[in-house]
Sequence to fold (1054 residues):
Amino acid sequence: MTDRTVLHAVDLGRRFGKHVALRGVDLELAPGRVTALLGANGAGKSTLLRLAVGLLQPQTGSLRVLGLDSCRDAETLRQRIGYVPDRPDAPGALTVDELCRFAAAHYRRWDATRVDELIDRLEVPRRQRFRTLSKGQAMGAMLVLALGHDPELLLLDEPFGGLDPLVREEVLRCVLDAWRGDERTILCATHELELAARIADDVAILAEGALCAHASVEDLLGTDAPGDLPRGLHAALVRATRTSPSHAETPHLETVPC
Amino acid sequence: MLRVHLLKEVREQSRTLGIALLALPVLALGFGLLAPGNLVPTDIVEWFVLGALVLGLVLLGSDLVPGEGRRGQLDFLVRTPGALRASFVAKSIVLVGGLGTFALFGLLAGLLCDGLAGTRPDDVFPPVAMVPEAAWRSSTGLDDLPTSLVVWSLVLLVPWTLATSCWLKRSSSVLPMTLALLALLVVPHLLLVERYPVPLGEHLLPVGLGLAASTGMLSAWRSYVPGLRFGRSGRTLKLGLSTALLFAVPALAWSAERVHRWHHVDPREERVSLRPGVLAADGRTMLLRLQRHWENHGPSYVARIDLGTGEWSQLGSAWSSVNASGHLDLFGPIHGRYRPQAWATWTQGSGPRGRDDLEFHALDLCHDRVLPIDPANPRLAEVMADLVASAPERPLLRLPDGSRAWLEPGQVVLSTPDGRREDIAWPEGYRPVQLTGFGIRFAPLPSAHGTDVRDVQILDLSRRTFLSPEDALLFRYVRAGDWLLVTWGPTGNGDGQVCRVERVDPETGVRTALTLDGRERPLGMAGDGRLLLRDSSGRARLFEPETDRRELLPLVPDLRLADQDIPRRRDEQSLTTPDGREIWPLRLADRGDAFARRDGDVLTVTHVDTGGEDVELAAIPDDDHVLVIRGMRRLERWEFGSDRAEVLFSTGTD
Amino acid sequence: MDDFRVDPAAHTPPSVQIVEHLLDALSTGRFAAGDKLPSVRSLAVDVLVNPNTVAKAYAELERQGVVAGRNGSGVYVTAEGPDHARSLRRASTLQDFVRTTAAALRAGHDAEALRLALVESSNQASRSTDTHCETPQGANHR
Fold:
């Protein structure tokens, strides 16, 4: 781990009751990289993101984000992290403008000008209550709320799920636009390989709570098959799932390199 | 920051508020118009306010936190930096404000309903009662129901509702959970105080409730701000409950400790004084009353003391009293030696309708058994019969002609030397209270209206008649055939002492003053009817009013009587040793209080130097000793003719 | 810019697609020598691909000497850039042409028909080259 490692998980594990959501995850994210977190539903993608934003406590291992402890320093950390959950969860009774005022009151680095730009760009209606927004508008608003304070780490949990193609493209543009070179790192959980292939520098693959692969797209697919990234990713995913500890008896199986 | 949170809360609750506040006037209109006037209770306004508050708690209070989860926006609050803190404050404000609004609308609806029903519109629930300040106006808190009830339930329910609502997913279980929790927190205290009555300090109740309320707020804060940091989880409950316990356990311990301390006395405490009790028949144990000074009005306790070892144990609980003679003088004089004894315990204000709860116990000190005296206990009758049977051997009074007199329930019994027995019934509605020479003074039984202390009947035992002169209170002694009226004490203008001895003719009421030397003081009446005097040179003399003769009664050793009042005494009668010799309380010059035994023609004196300390006679254990309580702290044994003081028991740390 | 988007499912890797696209744009004259190329981020947003991929494409172009970064202010077309781009495109498109022609002959086209088609395309290209404003038809489409 270098000083600039954005996210550093060591033997990270978390279970919910009997269900093991994450087991023995060792993951390092370098600054400025866009990492697609791939995996089937229930593979532990959301859990990893929620751990990173301090909404969950790790049960085993440790997790440091931006050099800070994900739990103990959560309050400080959240000033520097943007997080978009898989389901829009902003208070539904407030309008988008009010939500922005709400967020502005809590984030020290809130940039109202930039936020206005984003809102216009995503065509989010400002004076409409959040709960009456369409899915795409709501996702746009969540993205605005996650980006308004210029976060160093952007965590996206299935940001494209259930969006129609046009909205999806706008959201995608926003995500790409959010890139700031080394200043911002993006971790995006998705199961859509075409989008992952577009945005990702690196790919991390989770299967049944274990991290099966973490490599740049090129390294993962190999130089021999440069074309058709989605299909390459799919093949990698299938390989990962096969070698995953699907029938493992022990919860802490070593990470299987793909 | 708070403003955006308030906006959010108000937005979210506006529908609830709107519907409820609309429903209240509609309900009032319906009830007021449709219900017959006599069905509308006079306190309908209070009911509306209370109902509105309950509605507010159910609709608003119990949904503030679970609503966040239901709307799926809890995570948003959790992950927005600082949002939990601000939203807690906002929620508290909205809850208090919302309940205030509910109460106000309840009040308006109640007034509307009351006005429509045409009943007592003047009986208006004071709106000011809705303001929490009203709580502090009444010092004890729960005096004027239901105003303070409303206020206190708000003060308690608001924080605890917030706390429990953090723990529960369903808002419908919040109110029952809150009530159950409050019951758990408060009921043990109530049970303790109910079971073992302890006087609560004037401000204890508001302070306790205030403490419970602020702990509730703390618990709510801990449940919400750090507790919801990872969403609703076991951690939320753990933090909230541990805070509640943090309050509950010490508070309960404090309560229990206070109750225990109240009901258990330790003689080594600084502020415990000793009062006389009764001596066991074998002379080895004694029951003493321990008076504790507790916030200006302490309870008394009964302790059994082993006179040989000084060991002690407590009998009964607070407000116990040992009172062998006090129970209508049935069991003989207070100072003296007793057979199987009885004592009474009473517990202040715990009986029906707040009256004192009296409980009697009989104690067989020789067999070390305690028997509760209740009418159904056959042993009670035995003890009573035993006491009555032993009365002739230990008569209350021996008359100069050799007759003996004693008390039995409802009658005075006279037994002449030739064995004749004469029963004189007590005057109806009176009880014997004091011996006055050869007479018995009767006072009216206590009644709810109080008694007139001047209302006195005196039984003249030599004439077997009841006398009721106007100034009967002033009579000190009655002796065979005539009365001696002895008056002494400081004069009204403070320049000396007045002392007067008069003879009164019972037939005509004519009084004849007897001449006393200016510095002579009467000390009491001897068994032969003569007055014991202190003469001007501090010697004791026996004075016969008939002949005006004064006979010297030398003190052994040769000491002088103080030129002061005689020591404090329980009653005016002479005391006797077990073998029948008279004992006199005296005050010696330079030595303080003392006791003298009349041995034929001399007085054998105890001459311990008391250094001005108060001395009270506790018992006469045998023919050669008296037990005294000195300075209300030490039980001592004094010997006649000696200056030795043996400390048997003492209170305090010294 | 136009409607060009990187196709991640294509056989060519995204960065190569961007390089080809930009070489095309240079060779048709849409960027003249000394012009500034769009910023990495804005091009990434336009073509919907990770900006690092665009940066990689820019680096490749710079390696080929077509463009050059001027410290911090952006990436500019070098003086020899357009010519260089055209020659690069010529080399790679000729290979494509030969390969495609072979495939067409195998498919049963006769050589004369292919020649006519070539003449026709050539006439169209020379018309549009005269105006210097349009992208040659089909240059971007596969």
